[in-house]
Amino acid sequence: MEDYVVAENRKVDGYELGLYAIFDGHSGRNVAKYLQAHLFDNILNEVHGHHCPQPQPEAFSSSLRNVPRVDGQLAMSRAFGDARLKDHISSEPDLKIVTIDRDDTDSIILASDGLWKVMSNQDACDCIRGVEDPKEAAKTLIAEALARGSKDDISCIVVMID
Boundaries of each PPM-type phosphatase domain copy (predicted)? Predict the structure, then answer.
């Protein structure tokens, strides 16, 4: 099993856009590699021409807490590929827009279940409090997950909020 990571920023129509994602290649690497290479372009093609009147400090979020396993193996609420699981799971995301309180939010942590199996959200935030470099913060979280005995793949992206 392999995880594939995307952490990419692009300037589009005067806006700084970022795509941050972790793809688990648990059923093989083809879908994860395809998403890594093409998802950002596909999203931009889908929304091209939509007008955003004011840049807002918002983020998309979806809750993945206490998600049961599908067929005893897949522990996520959405998946691409996995044709044999299509009866049980959707590739359509549940999205909500949340306003980021810049006074109260230092970072956004995206990680695979290798981290979340051994750390709570608060543990992860506490672990990187004071770390200013996002790469160092991600390395710190991975090291802590390993120290706590994680046996799963661990991928992590930390996005610092300016």
Answer: 1-161
